[in-house]
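User: I'm new to structure prediction. If I give you an amino acid sequence, what do you actually give back? Let's try with this one:
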Amino acid sequence: MGMVVTIDGPAASGKSSVSRELASRLGWQWVSTGAFYRGLGYAALQMQVDISDVKSLTELSYSSVWSVKMANARTHVFFKEKDVTDDIFREDVGSIASKISHYPEVRTALLEAQRKCSSGSQGLVAEGRDCGTVVFPEAQAKIYLTASSEHRAARRAAELGLDQGQTQEAQKVRDQQDSTRKAAPLQVPAHALVLDTTDMALEEVVDSVENFVRSKLNK
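Assistant: Good question. You get back a string of structure tokens that encode the predicted 3D arrangement of the chain. For your 219 residues, that looks like this:
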């Protein structure tokens, strides 16, 4: 396994934008681990799998009907060989992803595939909600990004063309689900750099993260 940097935080805190730019600067691979849960959620929706049926969800986790592939700009999800990456960011899919992420069996089923993303590369920047605590607990550098609820909702609504108020309410529900689940809850990893990105420009955030990462890697 090459070097690993993890970037965790709640929805629309800037994880994807920051982690992609950081990976580009370092010349490393990049992955959004949340794509695995959103991909599974999307597949469950399309296959009409009961999201309370843990056994069926776990079996679907291993199914070849859907897959995740890394790329420089996006972590792509395919369903029946069709690229459905745009669709997995819908709020209904995000809600399903949050619900199924509560199941330890599902998390265990997806964990191996997530960890394989670090194989065969010089380094990996992984972003999600439990990268630094569960997926890559031995990562050399860990970052946790956050932002105000209003700012995060405005950012996500602008990205997807949604109503800001409805987006904020949906995010509050998901934040509560993610932070209170028994299996790998959203939390700040030990020894992580914590940044509130509410009043920070993207370049400023990336600069701070890059400086932190390089200080860790040069030790």
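You can read the tokens as a compact description of the fold. Here is one thing that stands out. The first strand starts at residue 3 and ends at 8.
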